[in-house]
């Protein structure tokens, strides 16, 4: 019998047991009792004789989805809801001397409200309250959407009445697979105004429910014809429409102002006080696409909730039958709400073996919207842009500096001590997964899975209290080890896998983080006015460690982040500052770093890591601030195996020493590689699944340019793969006049190397739009949003790119790091690669996402050339390559040292 069948059988048996127990109370005699014991013994894994003989723990509480909340919560008569179990625990804890376990039988517990825990639900000295689930134990905040019918006259479209309690939601799941909220191109041209936009036609005003429509501002580095819509390449704000009247689009407040306005320093024009992104945005704040509109519900896998008619619409994917599918709409915004206080903390509780699923977050759908600054932090409140987190730098500014509003967690703890989260799954969630808020201490997060989460995977502490008034408000001694975080964020793409604020003695170690949209781990984060010559704001952080993690395929959606990203003070000295050690970080997509010490970052040690495959710089020592003696922010970068290749030195406090150029990742030290990521007993987490296998998510940020009879196309890859790796991409160019369509298929491995594809066979003089789909073993994804139209032309040989500048080389015995700045002009077409000629006769072609994205802002390029001989002179020639041809070369010479 399979485990799945066993769990379903046990649940059914538990239900039968409850019914038998009710009957037994009316029927005297040992036979009735024996029947109860026999049924319940099987339900909870024993025999009737074992149950009859074994002394039952009087204090333990038993729960089953088909139990009865009028029952006593014993093994023979379980209660039905976790809330009732909590109430029983409250009665028993004061008399408890040993651990009290709440046994959660397999099955789905549909919560009517969040499970609220406070100090009354805590363990005591020497014992804990353990909430113990198992395979198939699910805490759900969702409601099943049933009784689906095809919509007459709309082929492929189905509808169902919204279930009771579903007034609004931002997510829908079909057999555990997240559906895409209806999205599409904006059908009119928009011109910014002080309160929103003027549209070229009244099309939007004629759509149903205009005030439910949401504009999305995707960002990332601008390249080719891909625009940068957000507040910087690391953000993705979202704002609802407030109202529509003809061609006048009035955006919801305060989202509009908080997303488009910034206060500048009066004596530093163009420098915003919050230091984040450009100072003036209104004239450029055009949305990239529209979401949550019935009129763009046009592809399989998309859905829409008409709140006014209480109707849910869905276009099934291939193979889905809405009549028989499990379709879930999240209703609750929290599943577990731990409400400790400084004087009465929540403590000595363990949550084990529970899947937390189907919770939403509705603030972004309100006039507040989602005015993101970075890492899921947002500007909130009426005129928040004027004051929030700006301290003494602006009249009425609130402190601490750079403290904005943190995204909430669907499982949230405040002032919790001696807590444990182990063997859980945080999946199918609409905010952050787990929030360990202010005052969380001595807490373990171990052996969990975080995936399919709209925003941040996990949040620890915050930046609202850089110097808490009491010990109870400190966040410290939180251990996050051996967790797998992947395929997130799904909705708020500027989110990160692990967000850690102002904390002490925290350890983030032996986790695997892969396929994430932005940074993997974000540390510190606030208090960094260094760009105006001010030191970082003091905070309580010290002795935090990021060690032995395996991080790969990060920054798949946005740019200017890292595998490990840090801002602000991390301690008071290099001894107690942040330590980033023993990590293996590779294959970032967006322009950024493997380890990034950003604004105000001070007292960080980066030691003994393996770092490769990053775009642009592998590691950056951010040194905007210098003290009165001219010293930089102290930073220690030693003993890493990397592609950066910086020479040893001490640049006024930034120490670089004993690092090794890594020309071949397979040659990285075996002990570092073996120790990174999940430890052996936890590697089974990589095989856990929570949904049926599905097609990948659609690629994003498609850009293109035209050449003679062809189009060159780039895009961001599908990092949500649907349980099966992406094998290829299909690129389709369609003539805007409908005359013909041309497609080409690109293997995923080739695209990872080149970051672009070429569609040939196009007609010169004809405009084309381009879309991209991803394919895995299950099938083909939804189409991407289309790139802006391009028109191939035949204008002769054209102009070639200029020469690259700033070419430098730094060599070790068998490898050299080359660095250069892209050419100032690229001729007729953008740079798509570089040709490096080595004096030993080799020619090396350099391609990749950094090649494409570095050009617009002249970001520095680097590459490592291996297979060199010690004590040998080499000359390297570097030439830019475009669709037009290869430009002139720049040369640099270097002699490798002896071994």
UniProtKB/TrEMBL annotation:
Per UniProt, the keywords (alphabetical) are: Carbohydrate metabolism, Glycosidase, Hydrolase, Polysaccharide degradation
TM region(s), chain numbering? none
| InterPro entries linked | Beta_helix, FN3_dom, FN3_sf, GH141_ins, Ig-like_fold, PbH1, Pectin_lyas_fold, Pectin_lyase_fold/virulence
Name of one Pfam family that matches: Beta_helix
Which top-rank group of organisms is this from? Bacteria
Which Gene3D superfamilies did the record assign? Answer: Immunoglobulins, Single-stranded right-handed beta-helix, Pectin lyase-like
The residues covered by the Fibronectin type-III domain are 695-796, 800-899
Signal peptide annotation: none
From the UniProt entry, list the residue stretches annotated as the region Disordered. Answer: 64-84
Protein name per the record: Fibronectin type III domain-containing protein
* Species name: Streptomyces yatensis
């Amino acid at each position: 019998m399979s485990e799945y069948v066993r769990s379903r059988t046990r649940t059914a048996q538990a239900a039968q047991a409850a019914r038998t127990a009710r009957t037994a109370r009316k029927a005297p005699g040992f036979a009735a009792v024996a029947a109860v014991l026999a049924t319940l013994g099987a339900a909870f894994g024993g025999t009737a004789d074992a149950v009859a003989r074994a002394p039952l723990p009087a204090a333990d509480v038993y729960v089953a989805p088909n139990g009865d909340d009028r029952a006593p919560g014993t093994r023979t008569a379980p209660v039905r809801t976790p809330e009732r179990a909590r109430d029983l625990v409250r009665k028993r804890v004061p008399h408890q001397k040993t651990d009290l376990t709440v046994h959660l039988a397999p099955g789905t517990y549909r919560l009517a409200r969040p499970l609220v825990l406070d100090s009354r639900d805590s363990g005591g000295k020497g014992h804990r309250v353990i909430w113990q689930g198992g395979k198939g134990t699910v805490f759900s905040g969702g409601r099943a959407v049933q009784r689906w019918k095809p919509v007459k006259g709309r082929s492929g479209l189905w509808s169902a009445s919204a279930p009771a309690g579903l007034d609004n939601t931002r997510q829908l799941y079909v057999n555990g697979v997240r559906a895409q909220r209806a999205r599409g191109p904006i059908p009119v041209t928009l011109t910014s105004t002080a309160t929103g936009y003027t549209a070229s036609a009244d099309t939007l005003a004629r759509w149903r429910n205009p005030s439910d429509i949401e504009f999305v501002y995707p960002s990332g580095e601008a390249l080719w014809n891909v625009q940068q819509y957000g507040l910087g390449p690391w953000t993705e704000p979202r704002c609802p429409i407030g109202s529509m009247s003809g061609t006048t689009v009035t955006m919801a407040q305060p989202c509009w102002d908080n997303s488009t306005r910034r206060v500048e320093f009066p004596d530093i024009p163009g420098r915003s006080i919050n230091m984040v992104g450009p100072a003036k945005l209104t004239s450029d704040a055009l949305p990239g696409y529209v979401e949550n509109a019935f009129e763009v519900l046009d592809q399989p896998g998309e859905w829409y909730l008409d709140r006014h008619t209480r109707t849910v619409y869905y276009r099934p994917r291939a193979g889905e039958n809405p009549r028989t599918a499990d379709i879930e709409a999240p209703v609750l915004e929290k599943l577990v709400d731990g409400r400790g206080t400084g004087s009465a903390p929540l403590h000595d509780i363990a949550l084990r073996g529970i899947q937390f699923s189907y919770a939403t977050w509705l603030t972004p759908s309100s006039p507040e919207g989602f005015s993101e600054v970075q890492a899921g932090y947002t500007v909130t409140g009426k005129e928040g842009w004027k004051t929030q987190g700006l301290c003494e730098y602006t009249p009425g500014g609130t402190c601490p500096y750079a403290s904005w509003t943190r995204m909430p967690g669907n499982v949230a703890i405040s002032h919790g001590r001696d807590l444990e989260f182990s063997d859980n799954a945080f999946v199918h969630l609409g905010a952050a997964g787990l929030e360990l808020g202010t005052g969380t201490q001595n807490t373990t997060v171990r052996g969990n899975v975080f995936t399919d989460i709209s925003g941040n995977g996990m949040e620890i502490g915050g930046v609202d209290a850089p110097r808490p008034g009491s010990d109870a408000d400190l966040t410290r001694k939180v251990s996050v080890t051996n967790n797998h975080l992947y395929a997130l964020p799904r909705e708020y793409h500027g989110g990160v896998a692990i967000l850690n604020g102002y904390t002490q003695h925290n350890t983030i170690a032996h986790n695997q983080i892969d396929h994430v949209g932005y940074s993997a781990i974000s540390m510190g984060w606030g208090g960094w006015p260094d760009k105006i010559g001010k030191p970082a704001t003091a905070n309580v952080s010290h002795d935090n460690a990021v060690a032995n993690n395996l991080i790969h395929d990060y920054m798949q959606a946005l740019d200017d982040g890292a595998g490990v990203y840090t801002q602000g003070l991390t301690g008071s000295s290099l001894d107690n500052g942040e330590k980033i050690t023993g990590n293996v970080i590779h294959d970032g997509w967006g322009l950024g770093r493997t380890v990034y010490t950003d604004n105000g970052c001070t007292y960080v040690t980066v030691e003994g890591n393996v770092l490769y495959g990053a775009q642009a710089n592998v590691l950056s020592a951010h040194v905007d601030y210098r003290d009165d003696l001219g010293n930089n922010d102290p930073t220690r970068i030693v003993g890493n195996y990397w592609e950066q290749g910086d020479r040893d030195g001490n640049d006024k406090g930034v120490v670089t020493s004993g690092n090794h150029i890594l020309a071949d990742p397979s040659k990285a030290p075996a002990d570092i590689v073996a120790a990174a990521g999940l430890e052996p007993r936890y590697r089974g987490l990589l095989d856990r699944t929570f949904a049926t296998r599905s097609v990948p998510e659609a690629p994003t940020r498609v850009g293109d340019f035209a050449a003679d009879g062809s189009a060159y196309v780039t895009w961001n890859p599908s990092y949500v793969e649907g349980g099966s790796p992406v094998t290829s991409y299909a690129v389709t160019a369609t003539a805007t006049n409908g005359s013909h369509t041309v497609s080409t298929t690109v293997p995923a491995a080739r695209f990872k190397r080149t970051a672009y594809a070429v569609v040939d066979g196009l007609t010169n003089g004809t405009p084309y739009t381009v879309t991209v789909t991803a394919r895995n073993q299950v099938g083909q994804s939804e189409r991407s949003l289309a790139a802006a139209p391009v028109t191939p032309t035949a204008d002769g040989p054209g102009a070639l790119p200029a020469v690259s500048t700033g070419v430098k080389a730094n060599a070790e015995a068998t490898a050299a790091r080359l660095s250069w700045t892209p050419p100032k002009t690229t001729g007729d077409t953008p740079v798509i690669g570089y040709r490096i000629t080595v004096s030993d006769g080799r020619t090396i072609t350099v391609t990749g996402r950094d090649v494409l994205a570095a050009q617009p802002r002249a970001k520095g390029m680097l590459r490592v050339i291996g297979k060199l001989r010690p004590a040998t002179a080499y000359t390297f020639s570097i030439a830019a390559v475009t669709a037009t041809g290869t430009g002139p070369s720049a040369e640099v010479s270097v002699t490798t040292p002896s071994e």
